[in-house]
Write a structure and sequence with these properties.
heterodimer, A: alpha+beta, Dna Ligase, domain 1, four-stranded antiparallel beta sheet, B: alpha/beta, Rossmann fold, nine-stranded mixed beta sheet, two-stranded antiparallel ribbon, 6 helices, 11 strands, disordered N terminus, disordered C terminus
Chain lengths: ~500, ~230
């Protein structure tokens, strides 16, 4: 199976806005840029090998995008895994081909023609253009897929040489120099190539050409490395009747965890994300996803984590089935014994486990604070649910700020010194029915609102000390003269 | 090559109980350390910070202890369900906000569970929380969790002489605000309970706002304002 426009098709699947648009993929080597692939919508004058400037001169609306062979290869593997629905043996042939082992599939799909049609249809639905050929050897199949004519795509053992004879020598998977040399010698088809004496070919072009010919004709077996099938890691249990008690569910969960941990250990993997499913008798499945900070297959740790998560699952009529699957897995080596290894590493690992547990059970309850440059006290920090990496020093850090800052300033009643304007110092204030007589008042400190954000109010802050020795942070809104308590120096 | 395990892990592996002396921390105030049992604050224990009646929570004192207790790589967990904590003030006091976890639990039972989990974790140096009241079982559970984790639990709770019940705690302190001045804020700090500590002695703690310097001295006057030393019954 040959995918002539694989990078183009892949990018279009990823970015649907590129459909029906003319675009080209650009390869950059050093300071040199070169067009490598062109979408079929682009005008005929643009072909691979041009510089982007030349291509744009042909078609001003051409979109130029950088190519990414690594992503292409990754996606090709994903496509290969998807194709395992047609054949258990799929082999990648980068950059843009795949081999499917069709041995014995005729009976399953009602003939090779049917198989080919169904694969082609499925790929067309995915928006991937593909040329598919079926032949007795991988070499011949690739030659027919990449260079064959539309009508001759399924070739049996007897017609193999005839089918290949008309194809150009490139179809033999030869390198560019060999092909050019053959063309210079006037050899334009495989048929004429095969007529040349074998020994002379080896002398002139090296052993590779003989190997390729033999692989295509079937004289030599070509080993293929097929993709390894990764069975999903999951375990299920069904109950006789609806189960409500948490203890029983935990008992079942323990079995599921043991099974999943066994599967993970067998493959040298650790789970990064686990998905629990509970099926009530007459309601949709309840799902709970638990993420881990680092891959793990430790049975008791996973079980404790899942127990934390199950406590938040609600049920009215109980569950009749439960399942557990590892949705994200990572390679994990054998664990080091607990006695060896640094104290700090172990502490850090334990902290990670703690965070996992807290996150699994309490959503959004664990937060980190981050400083933000702002003069307005309540906007000078921000709370986030993932660890903060930046270390911003607040602009107002030099000023002493209360350790307790009320999330919403509380309205208080204040008696102020008599004065003509509304800027007298406070004498006492009443907060929640409690009268505080002030011994000392320091201030005001004027903090202007962020007028560029539509907050015009200016506050005059006072640092006050009551007779008991408690210290509060009050402010008066300059426009309205209303008083609020904003914090306590505790 | 096999690296030798650190002393603490040997203690754990061979079941040797660590003695108080090495597993303790000192604050920057020697006068305060001298009040505490053995001249230092014990790790793997709960320390209670009490406040009386209408005065404010002793958050600054908790911050002082939490900062002193923070080990390299350890984090401070501060339970703040009402979102009253002001991180810039903590940052200005020298706390690395990247190693400060804020807990915002929805209800009390969740908070107690979370506190026990945090205390049990070795990566947490100090767990700070304001608890109104605890049942004896909850208090004991938290104490055991602190022993397992090796960190410090700093619990702020209200104190009313005669009514307050005693929980398992290594030390119990009473913090009361004292009249201050323009630039200096003062507290009276008294050790109420702690085996081997200078129980009943009152210390005057001062914070200078200009320099953020801490200073402690023996309280001279106003001894009558402080309550009579409580007996250790826990």
């Amino acid at each position: 199976m040959h995918l002539p426009q694989w990078p183009i098709d892949r990018l279009r699947r990823r970015r649907p806005e590129l459909r029906h648009k003319a675009f080209a993929l650009i390869e950059t080597i050093g300071a040199r840029q070169r067009v490598t692939h062109v979408s079929p919508e682009a005008p005929a004058g643009i072909f691979p090998g041009m510089t982007p400037a030349e291509a744009k001169a042909h078609h001003a609306g051409l979109i130029c995008l950088p190519e990414s062979p690594a992503d292409d290869a990754r996606s090709l593997e994903a496509l290969g895994r998807w194709l395992m629905r047609f054949s258990p043996n799929v082999c990648l042939y980068p950059p843009s081909s795949l081999f499917l082992d069709a041995t014995g599939l005729q009976r399953l799909f009602g003939g090779l023609d049917q198989l080919r049609r169904r694969v082609a249809h499925a790929l067309a639905k995915l928006g991937i253009s593909a040329e598919i050929a079926i032949a007795p050897t991988p070499g011949a199949a690739w030659a027919l897929a990449a260079f064959g004519r539309g009508d001759l795509r399924i070739v049996g053992g007897g017609e193999l040489l005839d089918a290949l004879a008309a194809l150009p020598p490139e179809a033999m998977r030869l390198d560019r120099m060999t092909v050019e040399m053959l063309a210079a010698l006037g050899i334009r088809s495989i048929g004429s190539l095969l007529k040349l004496p074998r020994d002379d070919l080896a002398v002139r072009f090296g052993r590779v050409i003989l190997q390729r010919i033999d692989q295509a004709t079937g004289a030599v077996h070509e080993p293929l490395t097929f993709l390894e099938y990764h069975a999903p890691i999951l375990a299920n249990v069904e109950f006789d009747g609806a189960i409500e008690s948490l203890q029983t569910i935990h008992l079942a969960l323990r079995q599921l965890v043991a099974e999943v941990a066994r599967q993970l250990a067998g493959r040298g993997l650790g789970a990064r994300e686990l998905r629990m499913t509970f099926r009530p008798p007459y309601a949709p499945i309840v799902e709970k996803v638990v993420g881990l900070a680092r891959p793990s297959r430790d049975e008791s740790a996973l079980f404790n984590l899942l127990c934390c998560a199950t406590e938040a699952v609600e049920t009215r009529e109980g569950f009749i089935a439960a399942g557990l699957s590892a949705t994200r897995i990572e390679r994990l080596g054998d664990e080091q014994p607990a006695l060896i290894g640094g104290e700090e590493e172990r502490n850090a690992a334990e902290l990670d486990h703690l965070l996992e547990r807290l996150r699994a059970r309490l959503e959004g309850a664990v937060q980190w604070a981050e400083l933000v440059e702002s003069h307005v006290p309540e906007q000078s920090f921000r709370c986030r649910e993932n660890p903060v990496v930046s270390d911003v020093r607040a602009g107002g850090a030099a000023v002493f700020r209360p350790i307790c800052l009320l999330p919403a300033p509380r309205a208080i009643r204040v008696i102020v010194m008599p004065s003509d304007s509304r800027d007298g110092l406070p004498i006492s204030f009443t907060d929640q029915g409690e009268v505080h007589r002030l011994a000392h008042v320091f201030g005001p400190e004027r903090i202007t609102g962020q007028w560029w954000n539509g907050r015009w109010k200016t506050r005059d802050y006072f640092d006050v000390l009551d007779a008991m020795g408690n210290r509060y942070w009050l402010f008066r809104v300059a426009d309205t003269g209303r008083w609020f308590m904003h914090g306590v120096f505790e | 090559m096999v690296r030798l395990a650190t002393a603490q892990s040997c203690f754990k592996t061979f079941g040797i109980k660590p003695t108080a002396a090495p597993w303790a921390f000192r604050t920057e105030l020697n006068e305060l350390n001298d009040l505490a049992p053995g001249g230092a604050f014990q790790y793997g224990a709960v320390h209670e910070l009490l406040w009386q009646g209408r005065s404010a929570l002793p958050r600054s004192f908790a911050l002082l202890l939490a900062k002193a207790a923070q080990t390299e790589g350890g984090v401070i967990v501060w339970s703040d369900p009402r979102r009253e904590l002001n991180p810039p003030a903590l940052s200005a006091a020298g706390i690395d906000l990247r190693r400060l976890l804020l807990l915002r639990c929805a209800n009390r039972s969740e908070e107690i569970w979370t506190l026990a989990e945090c205390l049990r974790c070795r990566g947490v140096s100090a767990t700070v929380a304001a608890v109104q009241c605890l049942s004896r079982i909850e208090a004991r559970r938290l104490q055991l969790a602190a022993e397992r984790g090796g960190g410090v639990g700093l619990f702020m709770r209200p104190y009313t002489p005669g009514i307050s019940s005693y929980y398992a705690a290594a030390t119990r302190w009473l913090i009361q605000p004292a009249p201050g001045s323009d630039q200096v804020q003062r507290w009276n700090v008294q050790l109420l309970h702690g085996h081997g500590g200078q129980i009943g002695k009152v210390l005057l703690l001062e914070v200078d706002r200009e320099t953020r310097a801490l200073h402690a001295s023996a309280a001279m006057a106003d001894r009558s304002a402080a309550p009579a030393p409580a007996r250790a019954t826990a």
